[in-house]
């Protein structure tokens, strides 16, 4: 595998309802992940949840923004073009960190 791989996750033009469903489900999945990570860290380590709290706030803001964009498209009778890429790189695991969790 090359150092960084790019994959096109979303490529299309959608109705406002379709775009809302696609985009908000992706963001909700990340919100759920960080919420569970935060609860797990609180339970196991008694704290250190700042990263998850920050990401949760950012993702909630993104959720609201995407909902507004899709509603604007519905209000104006336009469609939503979405191009979403994901980049993946393999990086060394820091020796002091806990072992990786199994893939979901």
What is the gist of this entry?
With 104 residues, this protein is of the alpha+beta class. It is 55% helix and 20% strand.
Secondary-structure map:
Elements: E1 4-14, H1 16-45, H2 50-76, E2 80-89
Antiparallel strand pairs: 1-2
Helix pairs in contact: 1-2
Explained architecture:
This protein has helices spanning 16-45, 50-76, and strands at residues 4-14, 80-89. By secondary structure, the protein is an alpha+beta fold. It has one domain (15-89). The relative contact order is 0.24. The model has no long low-confidence stretch (mean pLDDT 89).
Strand order of the largest sheet: 1-2
In terms of DSSP E residues, the strand content is: 15-25%
Number of domains: 1
Q: Major sheet: size, sense and barrel closure?
A: 2 strands, antiparallel
Mean pLDDT: 89
* Alpha carbon gap, first and last residue: 20 Å
Record field, number of beta strands? 2
Label this structure with key terms.
104 residues, alpha+beta, two-stranded antiparallel sheet, flat, single chain, 2 strands
